[in-house]
Specification:
The strands form two sheets. Strands 1-3-4-6-7-8-9-12-13-16-17-18 form a twelve-stranded antiparallel beta barrel. A four-stranded antiparallel sheet has the order 10-11-14-15, with no helix packed on it. β10 and β11 form a beta hairpin. It is 6% helix and 59% strand. The chain has a single domain, classed as Porin, CATH 2.40.160. By secondary structure, it is mainly beta.
């Protein structure tokens, strides 16, 4: 009788343990970070393919103006994101970008290609997920100006500018937090990263880009047979830049984008197909994007 009771208790503990260990695999959202690290000694690569098409612009007052008929602007961007676990609580990450820009404007057209800016990250697991607390990671980010940012050829209509619009040519250091919480059958993600560009000389002008904030909210809903649905919102806010010590008016940038998607995953690989749309903003392109990514762990 005692043995039967012990077996029953053991089974109930096992079942409870399995329930709390619900840990689905996925490619994660497009832009939002997933807080859990990859693990000691693990190497993860994640290529992204973005096709961005501009339908118009949001001007300095936030008003939307569509592109005139016959004009176009699009970009094919290839990103490679990699993670390596130094310990179970510390990982180093990197991201490289190669892009092709095309534009047609006022009966003129141009096409350019080249590397964009690169990024390095260091992430530390501060809190592992509990019943009430989300998985929490602290992040350090460094932007390296590997994309072309000066000597822009006017005949190429700006397509040869490969550096980030938030600060082409500047070295930026940023600090952030990543949160992930599982509530079966959902997984929720949130992050915020605040960055500080360093002063840079652009075409002979001392330039200090404004500080900026990236923030993301994402949710995944897990279905049967490895499928999941994803929805995320991505935001960006940046203040005016300074040129030769004076503020340059109407150079602030902000936008809000939304991205629904569908993913499929197994133990060896995870994939995601998504559509991303800029909903509102100021001094920014109104883009529609198709995104595909796949994750593989070594």
């Amino acid at each position: 009788m005692v043995l039967i009771v012990l077996v029953l208790v053991s089974c109930s503990i096992s079942f409870a343990h399995e329930e709390c260990e619900w840990n689905p695999v996925s490619a994660g959202p497009v832009t939002a970070w997933t807080a859990p690290l990859c693990g000691k000694g693990k190497f993860v690569i994640q290529p992204f393919l973005f096709y961005n098409r501009t339908r118009g612009v949001f001007n300095s007052e936030g008003h939307y103006d569509s592109l005139p008929g016959g004009e176009y602007k699009y970009q094919l961007q290839q990103q490679l994101f990699a993670q390596y676990g130094l310990t179970d609580r510390l990982e180093i990450d990197g991201q490289a970008v190669y892009q092709e820009n095309s534009i047609r404007q006022n009966d003129m057209s141009a096409h350019s290609q080249g590397f964009g800016d690169s990024y390095m990250f260091l992430r530390y697991c501060a809190i592992e997920e509990t019943d009430w607390m989300p998985h929490t990671a602290a992040l350090f980010q460094a932007k390296l100006p590997t994309g072309k940012y000066e000597g822009i050829d006017p005949d190429k209509l700006g397509t040869d500018q490969m550096g980030a619009t938030s600060g082409g040519g500047s070295y930026d250091h940023g600090y952030g937090i990543n949160l992930t919480k599982k509530i079966e059958p959902f997984v929720f993600h949130a992050d915020a990263i605040y960055s500080f560009p360093l002063e840079v000389r652009v075409d002979g002008v001392d330039t200090e880009y404004g500080e900026y904030l990236n923030y993301d909210f994402g949710a995944e809903y897990f279905l049967a047979k490895g499928f999941n649905l994803m929805l995320e919102f991505n935001g960006f806010i940046q203040s005016d830049k300074k040129e030769s010590g004076s503020s340059a008016p109407a150079t602030d940038i902000n936008y809000l984008a939304a991205a629904p998607g569908i993913g499929w995953s197994c133990d060896k690989a995870q994939a995601l197909l998504a559509y991303q749309r800029v909903l509102a903003g100021t001094n920014t392109d109104a883009n529609d994007s198709v995104v595909f990514t796949i994750v593989h762990t070594f």
